[in-house]
Structures are given as structure tokens and as C-alpha cells.
Amino acid sequence: MKHECVINLPVIETERFDLRPLQPSDAGLITLHTGDIRVAQTSGTIPHPLPPGWTESYISRVRAEDRTEDAWAIDATRSGGPEVMGLVLLKHVDAGVCEIGFWVAPQFWNTGIATEAVRALVAANPRGCRAHFATVFQGNAASARVLTNTGFQYLGDAEGFCVARNATLPTWTYSRKHD
């Protein structure tokens, strides 16, 4: 793996957990959580079943100097919780524009973890974005609520491909502009 480098992403603290850059040692928990079909089917990019080495390759890509996506683990170890409860992501779309993504392991659904993580990442705005976008598959009302609860505005309907479902699905698109 040529892309094992120290990456320049901040640790972002919240009341209950830290958002921290991914580490190679996170592979086991990320594989465990993303291997759950319920998580894979809410993401456009997580395959199901996970092929061998997928997680390690993903971690290597988001740690690379030439990466096009930043990823933070939702890590609650400082409060006695697990090292990886989910991830929040920023995909570099254009100068000053990023697409935010997130997933949370099912055992932490409906606990406010995703809302707190997205709110913290947007507030920290580590890429200095003037706008963030997000897309969720229609029918995923919980993720849509996370976005509206963190100040995102509904833009409209579109379509996106879901690798786990091997299908193009209708989506809702949201944006949040920064002053």
C-alpha cells in the first residue's frame, strides 16, 4: 500500500465523541459495520457482500496525499465507547464545494450520533467550503432528517446508483451554503 502517510485532517471534538482521521487499525470495525446489508444499502458506494481487501483499500485511499475524499471515524473511546461507530465523509467536488456523506452502525441508529457528527463536521468546515451538498436515497427518512436537522435545505429529486443493490434509485438532494 503506497498511500500510508500522515494526513493533515483535524480531530473534531463533540460532547460525546471525536471525529478523527481513519487509521489502518480501523479496518476490522469498518468491515464489521459496512458488511451489514442495512448500512451498505444506504450508501451508494459500499458493495455487499464486501470483497476481500475493500476496507483496507478504502482506508488507504482516504489517507493518500492525492485523495479526493476525506473520512473521519466517529470515535467514542474518550467516553468509554467504541472506536468506530460510523464515518463522516467529505468528497471534493469542486473548489469550495464538498459533498458530505455519513453512515452509522445500526446499533447506534436513532441516538443522534449522525446528527451530532454532521453538525460538528459542517461547523468545523475543515476544507473551507462555501457550500456542502448531500444526497440520500428516497425512503431513507432518517438520513434526510439528519440533513434537515443540521441546516441543509432540500434542493430536489435526482437518481443515484447503489452498488449494494446494483440499481439506480431515486434520491433527495440537499445543500447548505456558508456565509
Q: How would you sum up the global shape?
A: globular
What is the CATH superfamily of the domain at 12-129?
Gcn5-related N-acetyltransferase (GNAT)
What is the number of E strands? 8
- Largest β sheet strand count, sense and barrel closure: 8 strands, mixed
Question: What is the average of the pLDDT values?
Answer: 95
**How do the strands line up in the largest sheet?**
1-2-3-4-5-6-8-7
Per CATH, the class of the domain at 12-129 reads Alpha Beta
Task: Give me the strand/helix succession.
Answer: EEHHHEEEHEHEE
Helix content: 10-25%
- The end-to-end span amounts to 40 Å
Structural class: alpha+beta
Number of helices: 5
In the CATH hierarchy, the third-tier topology of the domain at 12-129 is known as Aminopeptidase
Q: Please give the CATH architecture of the domain at 12-129.
A: 3-Layer(aba) Sandwich
Uncertain residue segments: 1-6
| Rg from alpha-carbon coordinates | 15 Å
Fraction in beta strands: 25-35%
